[in-house]
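User: Please predict the structure of the protein below. I'd like the answer in structure-token form so I can feed it into my own downstream comparison script.

Assistant: Understood. Taking the following sequence of 232 residues as input:
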Amino acid sequence: MNRALAPLLRPGPRRGHFALWMLAVPCLVEATVLAGLDEDITDMVGLYAEWAALGADPQAVAQLTRLRALTAREEDCDALYQRALAEHEAAGGQFEHARTLLSYGMWLRRQRRLLEARQQLRAALVGFERCGALLWEKRTRSELRATGDSATGDNVSALGRLTPQQQRVAVLVASGATNREMAARLSLSPRTVDHHLRNTFNQLGIRSRVELALLMNGDRTERSGDSGAENA
């Protein structure tokens, strides 16, 4: 992918339309980082920052933060991914939101934070399923398998029936957030969060936050096994 996209972004004739460059930049940066190529992509991120500053694409700010997370020092990545997800929640756009969830989940897996990785990857899978992005679904399932979760059972299908807002609530519940904390993250009232949470319980046929967290994180056996491994 890197070899295919790079010519589109080099200066010179036949470079194409500016908007085409901006579609290619996030993919090029991600491909370069994941391939471990020793290339300076600072200029590419800077170019995308100029595009985001124009305000033409409401999702560009969140995508820029994702690019910065991809290229940041390890100690800064977590906060940048969290910020990117909050920006996606404000901007909308399920496909790019799912891409950021996938990227964050991959980073968490590399950090051996497997339960957190599953939360993000399962949410990403639901997003790609809702968009009909089959190749991205396949990639996400592969990442989930690498965490020890096959993601082929009824649980993920059930999550796919949630509305986008219910899905966001489910992810935050699985991360341990309180209703008040979720309200602040989602710019909703605690009463509205409680309404979404109750509807989520009904949709999934569960009765508690604990059951929802287990559903998002994988089965009880995997949870116990991973907790023991991570706390060792």
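That's the full token string. The radius of gyration is 18 Å.
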